[in-house]
């Protein structure tokens, strides 16, 4: 696949999108709405942050269609699972599923695992259930679920984009091991998160 945008520009843009303060329109406003609370939520936990970056990185290692299909699967399933969390419908082993996702996604990146698109989508969709449910369960009572969900959905897309940008920048060059090393680092951080 030919990328018309310079890789370095895409990566720089992706990094800038990671800075939540740049996403606020007014200085000093803080997180005052459900949308902004949701937008900031994935940036507040290392487990969510790593998993969402990892989905983007892993997608960038696969086929052209996977670059958009795998992250969109994650976002779609995550929003559905968030609705379950908001509605109070229980999903077992949410925290364990989130932590295992970080570990597994790191391993998949480290070994440059390639599966058929459907299999890859099922893998990320399964773990998106845990991430989405946790987001939905953690919604503050004073804000609306829809605006909150839109906020963390956008934040997830941004994090996937950063991961994709990183993967594209380093996969399509002679520095392929950098991407795999990122997978190793994510795996090690996943182990760290798993240890009480």
TrEMBL record:
UniProt keyword list: Membrane, Transmembrane, Transmembrane helix
Bilayer-spanning residue ranges: 35-59, 66-91, 97-130, 142-166, 178-195
Organism in which the protein naturally occurs: Rhodohalobacter sulfatireducens
Pfam families linked to this entry: HupE_UreJ
Name of the protein in question: HupE/UreJ family protein
């Amino acid at each position: 696949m030919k990328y018309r945008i310079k890789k370095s520009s895409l990566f720089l843009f992706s990094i800038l999108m990671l800075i939540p303060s740049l996403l606020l329109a007014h200085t000093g406003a803080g997180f005052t709405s459900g949308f902004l609370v949701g937008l900031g939520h994935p940036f507040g936990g290392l487990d969510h942050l790593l998993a969402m970056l990892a989905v983007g990185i892993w997608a960038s290692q696969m086929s052209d269609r996977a670059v958009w299909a795998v992250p969109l699967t994650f976002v779609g399933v995550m929003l559905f699972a968030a609705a379950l969390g908001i509605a109070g419908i229980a999903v077992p082993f949410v925290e364990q599923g989130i932590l295992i996702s970080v570990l597994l996604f790191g391993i998949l990146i480290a070994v440059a695992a390639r599966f058929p698109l459907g299999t890859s989508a099922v893998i990320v969709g399964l773990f998106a259930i845990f991430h989405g449910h946790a987001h939905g369960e953690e919604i503050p009572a004073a804000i609306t679920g829809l605006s909150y969900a839109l906020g963390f959905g956008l934040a997830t897309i941004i994090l996937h984009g950063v991961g994709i940008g990183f993967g594209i920048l380093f996969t399509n060059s002679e520095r392929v091991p950098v991407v795999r090393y990122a997978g190793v680092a994510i795996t090690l951080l996943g182990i760290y998160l798993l240890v009480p």
